[in-house]
Amino acid sequence: MRKLRRLGTLLREGLLDLFTDDEEDDREPFFDPVHLGAVCIVCLTVVGALYWLLWTLLVYEGGLFIKLRAALAVLLTERSLRDFGYEGTPYAQGAFEGWLGNLTALALSVLVLWALLHLYRTAARGGARASRKADA
Question: What is the per-residue pLDDT across 27-55, written as a single tens digit (0 to 9) for each?
Answer without folding.
Answer: 777 778 899 999 999 999 999 999 999 99
